[in-house]
Design a protein that fits this description.
The chain has 215 residues and is mainly alpha-helical. The chain contains 10 helices and no strands. It is elongated, with a radius of gyration of 18 Å.
Amino acid sequence: MARKRLSAAQAAAPDRLLASVLPEPRQASRRSVLRHALALFNENGVEATTIDDLRRASGQSVGTIYHHFKNKEGVVAALFFALFDDQSRAIAERIAGVTDGHAVVDALIAAYTAWITANPEGAHFVFVARDPVDQGPHAAGLQERLLARYEPIDEILARDAAAGRILPLPADLIPALVLGATEFYARGWLAGRRQATPASHAQRFATAAWRSLTD
């Protein structure tokens, strides 16, 4: 990861998340593998990290890792989906009950930047692991999650487009316009090239995103 210095709360975020996803004592070995996998994947890269690296770091046997996750791709996917689903919950909570396109763009970007700011290690991994997951055996799981996350937002924006409140843009262009600047800045912040947090600029990103849909 990141050359970023993490606050105590940011450093503890992965442990809190994994404890909420895998709360049972009998799931401790799975939590250990995933927590150490996050550190290794972020430090060395997904491709370069081996099952033996995970074994040494987590203290779990190769057999245990294969039992829980089947292979390294299973570890990557389990960790990615735990983080992605938590991010999606944060977005869903923020957009619940919102029916206006402008407000939903504001809410989406506020939730997204807040989650990244609170979870730098997880955010870094979500960025770097998305392509491996999308191109691997768990691609269908990612597509299902993307649809569930963005379908409510897409429906609101489609109604606004039909009513002439936003431009009649191609559907595949809208995500880049809405989140492109936010993601570009967030990647720079995670790499230590930006000082101010993504959350501190959320309103500016939201204003620019809405303008890109209406101007």
